[in-house]
Design brief:
Helices cover 66% and strands 0% of the residues. By secondary structure, the chain is mostly helical. Among the domains are: 66 residues, lambda repressor-like DNA-binding domains (434 Repressor (Amino-terminal Domain)); 74 residues, no CATH class. Helix 7 packs antiparallel against helix 8 and helix 15 packs antiparallel against helix 16. It starts with 7 loop residues before the first helix and ends in a 5-residue tail after the last helix. InterPro entries: Cro/C1-type_HTH, Lambda_DNA-bd_dom_sf. GO terms for molecular function: DNA binding. This is Transcriptional regulator, contains XRE-family HTH domain. It comes from Micromonospora chokoriensis.
């Protein structure tokens, strides 16, 4: 029997032994009983929840695909297929027979999961057909989702102009639906930031967030485009959404998550403009929204929550050049429970950004650790993105080059 043929419980047991852990040690780190671990390893208890498999994989320091017996190899280099996506975006005709709506929703859901697991090569092959099917169905919600997925993967492949086009198509498809339009605005802001158009990203994200979130969560004066945060009226923390009941009478948690994500995008855009005070204020508002959310169905694929807000704080501190705050906040946030629950794509992208930040702060070892961690979480974030390869090249120039980064440099075809 090969390792791929083993039941998942046997794989768990093998990796536990490789990590020199007893069943009790594994149980303690999972905050479960030794009996639970024993039943999993014997196959007496079924592992049928991916979130639990992710927890096990994290503790055993392997990818979930290893426990599932799925191939894990991630080739270096940008995946082929961008031209096919470009051609799909240029098509205006649709298949004569539209797919069933339920089947199309299933395809969209699978595409999002593929993206969140950072399987960009696989997603690039799927996107053209998904766009054709979504156009044929003429269902606004699935069409917006399809264009947003397309925009997101194009940002990952450093095709920012094409990503902006897909995001703009998502906005058009949203029509008069305010929530669909707001979720599409997330993609618009991401694409604009990828295009280094931070002022435009701020102008897109902030007014939409203000329209979507309850009146008590933002100041009355929310003019966009000023020179700093002084234009934002001051409010007590409990009037910015800090309390758990601040949003009880307005909207759904999913809508608040979209609004909170837009605030995070606006904060990152403000930071990119050098408006650090304004960025801090926007993050505080986002933190208030996140504090009011207690579990929700993330139908708009935002991954928003307290940890996402803390990651934004780290990135803003890095852009401000505050090395002490970066070190303190980063080391703290990656130990939080919510960190492990974020999609692999989200964590990998953040770690590459942190590596870039450490490099700018002169901490080559910190940058190397972040790159190696990113590669273990989401290999495609490191090996398939030109922007990540630039960071690898910069870190690899150190003398001597950190071993892990030297290996990555070889994998992606870089020479020192």
């Amino acid at each position: 029997m090969t390792s791929d043929d083993l039941p998942i419980g046997r794989r768990v047991a093998r990796w536990r032994v490789r990590r020199s852990m007893t069943q009790q040690m594994l149980a303690d780190r999972l905050r479960r009983s030794k009996s639970w671990v024993d039943k999993i390893e014997r196959g007496a208890r079924t592992l049928d929840r991916y979130s639990v498999i992710q927890e096990l994989a994290h503790v055993l320091r392997v990818e979930p695909e290893v426990l599932l017996g799925q191939p894990q190899s991630t080739p270096a280099g940008t995946p082929d297929g961008v031209d096919d996506i470009r051609a799909a975006l240029a098509r205006y005709d649709s298949p004569e027979v539209p797919p069933q709506t339920d089947e199309l929703r299933r395809q969209v859901g699978h595409a999002w999961l593929t993206y969140q697991h950072a399987h960009y090569g696989q997603l690039v092959r799927v996107v053209p057909g998904l766009l054709d099917a979504a156009r044929a169905a003429q269902r606004a919600e699935v069409l917006v989702q399809a264009y947003r997925i397309t925009s997101s993967v194009l940002v990952k492949l450093d095709e920012a102009d094409l990503a902006w086009l897909a995001a703009d198509r998502a906005m058009s498809a949203a029509g008069d639906d305010p929530i669909l339009a707001a979720s599409a605005t997330i993609s618009v802001a991401e694409a604009l930031r990828a295009n280094k158009r931070n002022p435009l990203a701020l102008k897109a994200a902030l007014p939409t967030a203000n329209r979507l979130l309850p009146a008590r969560s933002h100041p009355v004066d929310h003019e966009v485009g000023g020179s700093g945060g002084d234009q934002l009226a001051r409010q007590p923390h409990d009037q910015r959404g800090g309390g758990g009941g601040a949003f009880a009478a307005a909207g759904s948690p999913g809508e608040w998550a979209v609004g909170g994500t837009l605030l995070v995008q606006a904060a990152l855009a403000a930071s990119g403009c050098g408006e650090y005070r304004r960025a801090d204020e926007l993050i505080e508002r986002a933190a208030g929204v996140a504090a009011s959310l207690r579990g929700y169905d993330d139908t708009h694929r935002t991954s928003f929550g307290p940890v996402a807000v803390e990651l934004a704080r780290v990135l803003v501190a890095a852009q401000r050049g505050d090395a002490a705050e970066v070190l303190r906040r980063h080391s703290s946030v990656v130990r939080r429970e919510g960190w492990r629950r974020l999609p692999a794509e989200y964590r990998g992208a953040y770690l590459v950004d942190v590596a870039r930040a450490y490099l700018h702060l002169g901490d080559v070892r910190g940058a190397a650790r972040a790159l190696v961690d990113a590669d273990s979480v989401a290999p495609a974030e490191v090996r398939c993105r030109a922007s990540a390869r630039t960071v690898i090249a910069d870190v690899a120039r150190a003398q001597p080059a950190p071993a892990g980064v030297a290996r990555l440099a070889t994998l992606v075809g870089l020479t020192r």
